[in-house]
Write a structure and sequence with these properties.
By secondary structure, the protein is of the alpha+beta class. It contains 3 helices and 2 strands. Among the domains are: 1-37; 69-100, no CATH class. The protein is 36% helix and 16% strand. It starts with 5 loop residues before the first helix and ends with a helix.
Length: 101
């Protein structure tokens, strides 16, 4: 029994085509015909129409806690910790310049 496409391959080899390429083409053609998807038509319809605008209520953000500036100075008699309010940062910088001068 002769395999499908074999006579066609033999005919093309006689015309100078590469036998390996012909074999590959036969295998790929068989695979394509084996796995062709069924031709069906699917229509997608939304379940319900989507609104143009959907309002979202957000919870208010918690107020940010004011952080303090923390400074730790090492001294011969011990360490000194200083906490300065962040709102008065310019005064803290001035004080620090005077202490370090």
């Amino acid at each position: 029994m002769q395999r499908a496409g074999r006579l066609d391959c033999c005919n093309r080899i006689g015309h100078g085509l590469n036998a390996n390429m012909l074999r590959r083409w036969v295998v790929e053609s068989a695979q394509r015909s084996q796995f062709q998807p069924a031709k069906t038509t699917t229509t997608l319809v939304p379940a319900r129409p989507a609104p143009g605008f959907l309002p979202v209520k957000l919870a208010p953000a918690p107020p940010a806690q004011a952080a303090d500036i923390s400074i730790e100075l090492q001294h011969a008699r011990g360490a000194i910790q200083i906490h300065w309010p962040i709102a008065a940062s310019s005064q803290c910088a001035q004080w620090l310049r005077e202490v370090l001068a």
